[in-house]
Amino acid sequence: MRNWKKAFGVTAAVAMAAAAMMPTTVFAEEEETFKIGVIGPMTGDYAQYGTNVYNAAVLAAEDVNANGGFNGYQIEILDAGDDMGDPEKAVNAYNDLLDNGMQMLCGTVTSAPCIAVGAEAAESTFLFTPSGTAVDCITAGSNLFRMCFTDPMQGEKSAQFISEHELATKVAVLYDSMADYNVGIHDSFIAAAEGYGLEVVADEAYTTDSNTDFSVQLSKIKDSGAELLFLPNYYSDNALILQQASEAGMDDMTIFGVDGMDGILSVENFDTSLAEGVMLLTPFSATGEDEATQNFVKAYNEAYNNETPNQFAADAYDVIQAMKLAADDAAITPDMSNEDISAAMSASMLNIELDGLTGKAKWTEDGECDKEPRAFVIQDGVYVEVE
Question: Could you tell me the pTM of the whole model?
C-alpha cells in the first residue's frame, strides 16, 4: 500500500527569519547540503520561462529549508545554467553544474534541451523537469520525471475542451512546424479533433526562422470559415500572431492556446487588450483565491520587484516541494553518490502525492505526472478559471 504524503504549504512571504528563531531541526554542517541545479533559458526569447523557474526554485528552497530541508539537511540552489533554449548549450550547462557539485536537477525548462540533458542524466543524476512537455523528455532513463503535461495530452485535452464547451465546430490551427513542442501538440490536436466533432478547416504552419510575418497564413484562415484559432505556440510568437490577426480584421475569432501561451500579458510593447477573451490550458493562475497561491504570489512579488509568477514558476515551486517529499521518503543524505541519490529518489517518487500550486499530483513508473488540466480565459488582464 502506498504511503501518500502531502507537501508543506507555502509559508507566508517565505518566513526565513521566523524559521531561524524557532529551530525544530538540527541541520548538518554547511558543506553537508544538497545542491540542486536549474537549467533553462535565462536570456533570449524564452527568458521569461527560465527566470520564473529559477526564481521560484529559490523561493521553494527557502521554504523547504524552513520546514526541515531534505531529510533534515539544508538545500542549495546553484547559479542557473543558461541554455537559451539550445540543446548543446543545455548539455554544457549540465556539465558545468556537475562540476559545481550538482546532485539533482530542476530542469530543463524547454523540451529540446530537456531531451538532450535527459540523455546525459539517465540513470546517473535525478532529473525533474517542471515544464519539458515533449514525450521524449523523460524516456531516456528511469530517473527522469516531469511536473507538467505532455504535448500530446495538451493537444487532445484542448480538442476535448473546445468540443465539450461548444466553443466552435470549425477550427483552424497555426503553428511552428520546426519546434518539437508546437508540433507535438498540433499533431495530437489534429488526431483528436474529428473524434470530438471538430472540423479542421485550415491547418497552417510557419517556421522558427520565419516567425515575424503571418499574413499569408492568417488570410487563409480568415477565408476558411473557422470560428476558432488554435495556437499551440509560445507566447512570443502568439503575441505577434494576435497583433497581425487583429490588423487582418479577425477580432471576432475565438483564440485558444496551451501552456506556452502563458506569459503573453508580460510581452514588452504588446497591447494586452488583444489578449482579451483568449483561452488557454494552464495549470496555474496567479489570481487564484486559494491561500497557497496567494502566499506564493505575495512572496514572489516581494522577492522579485513586484513581478507576477507564471505557471512555469508554479511548476518549478512544486518540483522542489515534490523533491522534498521524495527525499524524506528515501532518507537520502548529501554524502551519497549522484547515482545512489537518483535511484533512491526515483523509487520514492512512486510513494508520494503532492497537493501543490498546480494541483494534486502523483507519478507513474515512467515518470509521468498524473493530474487534471485546467482552463482559463483572460478577462480584464487576469486569468479567470473556466469550469
Answer: 0.78
